[in-house]
Amino acid sequence: MRSFLPYLGRWWLRTRHHADCEEIAGAGLKGNLLLTGAHGFVGRAAADALTSQGWQVHLATRIGDAGVRLDLEDPMSCAELLNGPRMDAIVHLAAKVGLSGESVSDLFAANVAGTAGLLLAAQRWNARFVFASTAIVCGSKTADITPSSPVNPDSAYGNSKWLAEQLVAASGVDAVTLRFGGVFGADGPTHLGLNRAITAAQQGRRPQLVGGGGARRNYIYVKDAALSIAHALENDIRGTHFAAGSEISTLDEMLRALCDVFLPGQTPERVNGMDAADQVIQASPILPRTRSLHEALTDIRRA
Prior knowledge:
CATH superfamily of the largest domain: NAD(P)-binding Rossmann-like Domain
Mean pLDDT: 91
Shape: globular
Distance between the termini: 66 Å
Structural class: alpha/beta
Number of helices: 9
Strand order of the largest sheet: 3-2-1-4-5-7-12
């Protein structure tokens, strides 16, 4: 007589699977979401925002220590994603920035071919796709960037992102491209002067202001960048949109605000040097309004 235990085991697994699905549905989860660049500056904030929104966020990293292993420079790594759980959405933040004289070919595998691999997965899964690009596809020296600004990448990074944008548009995937300006916050990338200044202020040191400080910028706080991503996904936004801060400030005003919040009574340390140029990005009105610089700095101070 054959044992009924294997059948009982399979029945229990099926029952448990359905119960788990019902539990997930009851918890209001929207589905599975693959997040690339999960250990990055914006990625960490995006993971929090998307989880709060109800997504089951699968963190993709090169070593897979936090969830899904994904090496964008390895075509097989992208292909192997299809052997894992089906994703309902992909938020693609990972990129190689290339600030050391790299060429477009140096960035091609990670920024272009890697994006193509993820788009193929999105096609197979019929998944939503959110792509993080950069406003400097319109030129790193363009003073006023608007939706009507022509594409004019003048750096390897900008060129690689523009190539990837064209793949997103050609793929037919249900997608939105967000062109971000400078992103600031605690422990942010040091190529942005404001991030270096925040670190200095946190350590009790006066931030340095090079030149006159009259250049205007509208950087976006990292938590607002994450909320823009979550908002685009939640509201099924499509097309290409600029994500930047709602408030325009001079560099001098930014560093004075930083001192007001972190070092009351002190002012920035002035250093001789060339003045920076203006760069103001017209943020898309379809994205949420961002908090003010003072609100963002206060949030950093309280963390």
